[in-house]
């Protein structure tokens, strides 16, 4: 039988709510009028006005439909022999679930969809019996009950669906067998060559590292210049012209893990979004074992359109695995990911809607810019802010303008839900699932864009926390490079040769650059200040000086682009700090070697970044300034 998605009834009789005293006649009439005007349900209006709770809706529907009622399906005993006849995704889509056999022999079926003749025929056909008893239940309680009932399957699908359907683009296997053989042969060949001709081979290796460093930094420099004069604004008149009736349902995913300390900040920040509540669903994705965060969410009593989705235990325990679960229960046409501490511009969702309307069906995701609210807390936060200014205001704009593959940032990615599902969702085994998804989209012929909206985050204030975060990012770039190097012709065929070379310089070149920083620094010290060192007797001076030249030029270029970083946002006080970029890169190099070690020993381990460490306020800032208005001309 053809699978159909549920369609919430728009004409349910909620007179029970009046007769029971839950609402007044005036409240019900007003909700029905608004529901008709805004093309939504009466229940949604009443729930978002916080006049009633979901159990009231279940009771009202039971009274209107003439069925029994299950107020909280999550606590019901569900017979696996009946429920396991279908995949959990099917129940989510169809809106009904067999619960158990009753004493009279009939099968109790929970649903939040009006049990029409069509639905009854579907259920009878699926269960193979006409003896069916329907029970009305609450919509989100239904979804959570399905996740609980199928916990083991949900965990497995969230982790392994991409690996099963598209193993070529999954990082579940770090290196394919041909890659292992190729790397093994290359390593053996290098050892043999070093043994036979140590000096010439060493010269070539050092020279190759030097050239790779210069190429990677020069590429970033020229792409940043390409993006320096681009401020691709979303037409403000188009944003203002959007009406609540025109807007689609939008899902916000917020994966959290051990972040009970910033739950209140999360609710406050997302509560500032300028989007109609009845078309905005916020799904807070919490790991099953994280009791503290779950309790913190309950204690804050979030609005009705905020829902806690408990992610079943499973491995790898990563953010993308949680997001894959959220994707399956999301009802929005569009979807965005925010981190727990994020503070997006209030109109960011509306700007994304306009971008998708203007961008055509091939535009599958748009990236908003990221910046920091604690940019001046210490030296590290200043350097982080400079880097983000360069990356999001120049680098990504330049890549977008050049139609090159665009690695997404870890948050504020806005997706077409249907396109995201066709891409296979996120790769739970890739620890930079965002960058991977942007490249995968390009490899499959989709387009990734940027929008002129800003999300403020918390910059790392401590070096150990920075190393944890940055080592994960660099390891993810290594994983993404290995994944797309398995069959580079796929990316070349879909995106083109130039985009493939750009991918190689940016995604593969970034880890190689950082791995080369410390050796290059040491070689520089040796060649300039320790002229009698043994190394200078082995390697010709022209090689050492060429490497030094490339290294210095590369650093000058990166200092310059980091100086550009704060200009578009008027953060001129940060410009002098860009001179410390060579020192900042030492931290990146340390993180790169940690990333390489973890790629070998713990490729899928997710290094958690601790949030809520800043002493500065700003996650729930007390002003509503449009930060995109701060753009000024770049140098």
Automatic annotation (TrEMBL):
It is a multi-pass membrane protein. InterPro entries: Glyco_trans_2-like, Glycosyltr_2/OpgH_subfam, Nucleotide-diphossugar_trans, T2SS_E_N_sf. It holds the Pfam family Glyco_trans_2_3. Keywords: Glycosyltransferase, Membrane, Transferase, Transmembrane, Transmembrane helix. The chain crosses the membrane at residues 181-197, 203-223, 496-522, 542-562. GO terms for cellular component: membrane. SUPFAM superfamilies: EspE N-terminal domain-like (SSF160246), Nucleotide-diphospho-sugar transferases (SSF53448). This is General secretory system II protein E domain-containing protein.
């Amino acid at each position: 039988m053809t699978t159909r998605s549920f369609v919430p009834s728009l004409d349910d009789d909620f007179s029970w709510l009046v007769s029971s005293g839950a609402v007044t006649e005036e409240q019900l009439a007003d909700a029905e009028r608004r529901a008709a005007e805004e093309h939504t349900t009466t229940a949604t209006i009443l729930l978002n006005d916080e006049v009633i709770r979901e159990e009231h809706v279940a009771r009202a529907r039971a009274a209107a439909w003439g069925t029994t009622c299950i107020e909280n399906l999550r606590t019901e005993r569900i017979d696996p022999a009946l429920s396991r006849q279908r995949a959990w995704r099917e129940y989510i889509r169809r809106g009904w679930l067999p619960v158990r056999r009753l004493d009279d022999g009939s099968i109790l079926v929970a649903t939040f969809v009006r049990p029409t003749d069509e639905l009854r025929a579907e259920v009878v056909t699926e269960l193979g019996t006409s003896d069916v008893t329907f029970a009305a239940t609450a919509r989100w309680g239904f979804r959570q009950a399905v996740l609980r009932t199928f916990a083991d399957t949900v965990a497995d699908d969230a982790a392994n669906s991409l690996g099963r359907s598209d193993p070529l683009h999954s990082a579940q296997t770090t290196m394919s067998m041909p890659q292992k053989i190729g790397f093994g042969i290359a390593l053996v060949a290098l050892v043999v060559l070093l043994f036979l001709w140590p000096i010439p081979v060493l010269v070539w290796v050092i020279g190759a590292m030097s050239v790779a460093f210069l190429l990677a930094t020069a590429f970033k420099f020229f792409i940043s210049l390409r993006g320096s004069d681009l401020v691709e604004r979303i037409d403000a008149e188009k944003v203002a012209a959007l009406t609540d009736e025109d807007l689609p349902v939008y899902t916000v995913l917020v994966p959290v893990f051990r972040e009970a300390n910033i739950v209140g900040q999360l609710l406050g920040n997302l509560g500032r979004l300028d989007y109609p509540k009845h078309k905005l669903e916020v799904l807070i994705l919490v790991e099953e074992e994280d009791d503290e965060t779950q309790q913190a969410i309950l204690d804050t009593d979030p609005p009705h359109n905020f829902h806690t989705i408990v992610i079943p235990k499973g491995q790898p325990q990563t953010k993308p695995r949680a997001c894959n679960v959220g994707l399956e229960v999301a009802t929005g046409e569009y979807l965005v990911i925010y981190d727990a501490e994020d503070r997006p511009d209030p109109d960011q969702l509306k700007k994304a809607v306009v971008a998708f309307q203007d961008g055509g069906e091939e535009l599958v995701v748009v990236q908003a810019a990221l910046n920091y609210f604690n940019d001046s807390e210490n030296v590290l936060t200043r350097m982080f802010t400079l880097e983000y200014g360069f990356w999001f205001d120049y680098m990504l704009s330049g890549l977008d303008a050049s139609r090159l593959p665009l690695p997404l940032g870890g948050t504020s990615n806005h997706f077409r839900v249907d396109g995201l599902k066709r891409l296979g969702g996120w790769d739970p085994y890739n620890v930079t699932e965002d960058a991977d998804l942007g490249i995968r989209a390009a490899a499959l012929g989709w387009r990734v864009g940027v929008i002129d909206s800003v999300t403020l985050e918390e910059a790392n204030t401590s070096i150990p926390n920075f190393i944890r975060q940055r080592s994960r990012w660099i390891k993810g770039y290594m994983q993404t490079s290995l994944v797309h190097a398995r069959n580079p012709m796929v990316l070349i065929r879909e995106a083109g040769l130039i985009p493939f070379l750009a991918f190689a310089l940016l995604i593969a070149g970034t880890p190689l650059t950082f791995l080369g920083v410390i050796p290059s620094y040491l070689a520089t010290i040796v060649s300039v200040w320790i002229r009698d060192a043994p190394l200078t007797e082995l390697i010709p001076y022209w090689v050492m000086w060429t490497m030094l030249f490339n290294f210095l030029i590369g650093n000058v270029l990166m200092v310059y682009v980091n100086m550009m970083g704060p200009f578009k946002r008027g953060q001129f006080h940060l410009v002098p700090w860009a001179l410390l970029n060579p020192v900042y890169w030492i931290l990146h190099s340390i993180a790169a070697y940690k990333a390489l070690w973890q790629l070998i020993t713990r490729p899928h381990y997710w290094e958690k970044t601790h949030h809520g460490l800043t002493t500065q306020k700003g996650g729930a800032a007390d002003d509503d300034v449009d930060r995109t208005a701060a753009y000024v001309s770049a140098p």
